[in-house]
Fold this sequence. Notes:
The protein is mostly helical. The chain has one domain (12-321): Rhodopsin 7-helix transmembrane proteins (Rhopdopsin 7-helix transmembrane proteins, Up-down Bundle), CATH 1.20.1070. The protein has helices at 16-21, 39-69, 76-93, 96-102, 112-145, 150-153, 156-180, 197-201, 209-242, 247-275, 285-308, 311-321; strands at 12-14, 29-32, 109-111, 183-185, 189-190. The strands form two sheets. The chain has a three-stranded mixed sheet. The chain has a two-stranded parallel ribbon with strand order 1-4. Mean pLDDT is 80; it is low at 1-25. Belongs to the G-protein coupled receptor 1 family. Keywords: Cell membrane, G-protein coupled receptor, Membrane, Olfaction, Receptor, Sensory transduction, Transducer, Transmembrane, Transmembrane helix.
Amino acid sequence: MSVFFPTSLLVMKIGRKQMDRRNNTAVTYFILVGLSEYPRAQMLLFCLLLASYLVILLGNSLILVLVQFDSRLHTPMYFFLSNLSFLDICFTSSSIPQMIINCLVRMPVISAGQCMAQMCTLLYLGVVECLLLAVMAYDRCIAISDPLRYPVRMSNQFCVQLAGLSWVSAFLFSIVPTVATPLELCSHVINHFFCEVLAIMKLACSDLQLNELLMMATSSLTLLAPFVFILASYGRILGAVLKMRSTEGRKKAFSTCSSHLTVVVLFYGTAIAMYMMPQDKTSREQDKLASLLYGVVTPMLNPLIYSLRNKDVKEALRKLLGEKKVP
């Protein structure tokens, strides 16, 4: 769910000294370096991004259609999955199309207003995904560890409240502290594919101590805490699975949980490594790769891991296509 973790630098102003040297003109545009120094690699990235984006749109749109089409999928699990699919479509559509276009441009340029809007959008949606994945883990934990009380505990009203809480609290954790503490910038060259928060933070000429403190605090709440909660939830799920008498049931549960945890570790692991580790003033190629992992690869894997391998989803797809159920 890219450029999204809490920090406090979305209000972009150029430092006073720089303004004096540039006839008091503030930064009005940014140059996105990306892979412009490597034309062949840039064309390869173009092909990969285009293919990935098409898969993301197709997979997540299919899930949204199937959940609406088949009443058997009107359950808490698929309600949260449809939220995740919608989120991934919005999240990737905020960055990947521009990245694709930039691969065809020798010197990609973005206005300061567009850059700020992109950062705000991705920051917010990324935090929503962090919280929503934790909610989904809680749902699965209740479903497996307390199946008899599951319909009561995960009522429709409660599910809507959990999803709504994720969307609303993400705004408070991301946009509010960000706008509250402006940052002065001394350069307009971003060494990244798009307006990534940390990449722009490296352009600052003002003191970053308060910004870094806020980033660490909010990242702890939106990255570390949900990740620990998810691991604890799957630990409880594992305990319940081990008590199952059916060997086939245990294998199926282990396969599902391992797939889910793989995506979770990929998403949270790369994000935590970037946003909760000490940063220097230079942009690294590893930062670009990490942002591609959790900003492109994870949204592409989510439909496959969470839904499209599911038996109920396969049956809903056959029904939508008018095919008969395979015995």
